[in-house]
Write a structure and sequence with these properties.
- With 413 residues, the protein is α/β, with parallel strands linked by helices.
- The protein has two domains: 135 residues, Aspartate Aminotransferase, domain 1 (Alpha-Beta Complex), CATH 3.90.1150; 256 residues, Type I PLP-dependent aspartate aminotransferase-like (Major domain) (Aspartate Aminotransferase, domain 2, 3-Layer(aba) Sandwich), CATH 3.40.640.
- The protein has twelve helices and 15 strands.
- The N and C termini lie far apart (63 Å).
- The protein binds pyridoxal-5'-phosphate.
- The site of pyridoxal-5'-phosphate (PLP) has 15 residues, from helix 4 and helix 7.
Length: 413
């Protein structure tokens, strides 16, 4: 008898993006002439920048010649990329991370799920609410939760609400937790945590022997000088935190695939008998056993993101999206919406008017303005009454979407 992992059966069927797809398809079938603007899924829209393309072409040419051909590379990533990451993302900013603490991978989504391999099954897990659904679903799959309740929350997970009431700063849990998922700049809210909040979390983790998974996939979009870019800027974080970063949003690698995870050599977990165990060798073992590295041309492309040209081109790309975010933020405010985020992240998080639910707002926006966004409630119970719009789009679509929303508000008053 081939028994299945029944934890998969606990996953909720009506997953967010399929449900959005279903409603959009139904709308388009009924209204084939409608020009629908999609501002829902968080995927980039601009092509890879020239410096990256050039480096990838060159790497492919190397693969075509016997003298420069490469087979399996180091599982942890090539030295040229790990060195570039350590230097540019950390050491040049005065942050203590070395190249051998960096593990190059094919994505932060994969890493955030895979990390659970090296942790026990009896940890208490804390997530923000609203949350990037991957953190929750991977814990459900691993059997770390009970079933889902009516509002979509799983038993045994600790949810930390982040709403406008608390300025989107998560409160420390009142109970003990062991693994904590933080994501800043945040998806879906587009907001950032203050340095004080992150300091509180690091000291909580120290006190409780907990470990923080810090997802900084949107670090490149930070525009304000005083915003924390890496958890390792916080004193003591090297003892309690793993940081995940990705080239997906930073450099448009969502379809190209390259990311990295930082495991400090000073980070320890605890065995059942209370002895301490370094995390770095465990992750190294897992990575080498279950992963064979990111392709050479892709790693060359990622490394080109750190060349002078690459940096300039990526800065332009980020500025392009963040101009969309600014237009969205300002345009929605003019239309009378309460808006959050969009300053240090490519997402704008708006409060739905009055008591309108997230899904009702989704339907209204689709029907009246032919715009697709993401209902906040799809990211968690505390996202109810909120709605996410993405700045990953063309300028024309962004401007058109704003004009439509402003018009629809003006005509409905
Ligand atoms: C897009 C995104 C990632 C990146 O995932 P990849 O697998 O590297 O493409 C990670 N975390 C969050 C919260 C994201 O939105």
């Amino acid at each position: 008898m081939a028994r299945i992992n029944e934890n998969y059966l606990k996953l909720q069927a009506g997953y967010l993006f399929p449900e959005i797809g279903r409603r959009v398809n139904a709308f388009c079938e009924a209204n084939p002439q409608a020009d629908v603007i999609k501002m829902g899924i968080g995927d980039v829209t601009q092509p890879l920048c020239p410096a990256i393309i050039e480096a990838m072409h060159k790497a492919i040419d190397e693969m075509a010649v016997k003298a420069t051909f490469r087979g399996y590379g180091p599982e942890q990533g090539y030295g040229f990329l790990r060195d570039a990451i350590a230097e540019n993302d950390y050491q040049d900013r005065g942050i203590d991370v070395t190249a051998d603490e960096i593990f190059v991978s094919d994505g932060s989504k994969c890493d955030s799920g895979n990390l659970l391999d090296i942790f026990g099954d009896d940890n208490v897990i804390a997530v923000l609410d609203p949350v990037y659904p991957v953190y929750v679903d991977t814990n459900v799959m691993a059997g770390h939760t009970g079933g889902a309740s009516e509002n979509g929350r799983y038993e045994k997970l600790v949810y930390m609400p982040v709403t406008a009431d608390s300025g989107f700063e998560p409160e420390l849990p009142t109970e003990h937790v062991d693994l904590i998922y933080l994501c800043y700049p945040n998806n879906p809210t587009g907001t950032v945590a203050s340095r004080e909040t992150l300091e509180k979390w690091v000291s909580y983790a120290k006190e409780h022997n907990a470990i923080i998974f810090y997802d900084a996939a949107y670090e490149a979009f930070i525009s304000e000088a005083d915003v924390v870019r890496s958890i390792y800027e916080i004193e003591g974080a090297r003892e309690v935190a793993i940081e995940l970063r990705s080239f997906s949003k930073t450099a448009g690698f969502t379809g190209t695939r390259c990311a990295f995870t930082v495991i400090p050599k000073t980070l320890k977990g605890t065995c059942k008998d209370g002895t301490e165990q370094l995390i770095h060798p465990l992750w190294n073992r897992r990575h080498c056993t279950k992963f064979n590295g990111v392709s050479y041309p892709v790693q060359r492309g990622a490394a080109a993101a750190y060349s002078d040209e690459g940096k300039r081109q990526i800065a332009d790309l980020v500025a392009f999206y963040m101009n969309n975010a600014k237009l969205l933020r300002e345009g929605l405010a003019v239309a009378g919406f309460q808006v959050f985020g969009g300053v240090n992240a490519p997402y704008v998080w708006l409060k739905t008017p009055g008591d309108t639910s997230s899904w009702d707002f989704f339907d209204q926006l689709l029907e009246k303005s032919h715009i697709v966004g993401t209902p906040g409630s799809g990211f968690g119970a505390s996202g109810e009454g909120y709605f996410r719009l993405s700045a990953f789009n063309s300028l024309e679509n962004t401007e058109e979407a704003i004009a439509r929303i402003q018009k629809s508000v003006a005509t409905s008053v």
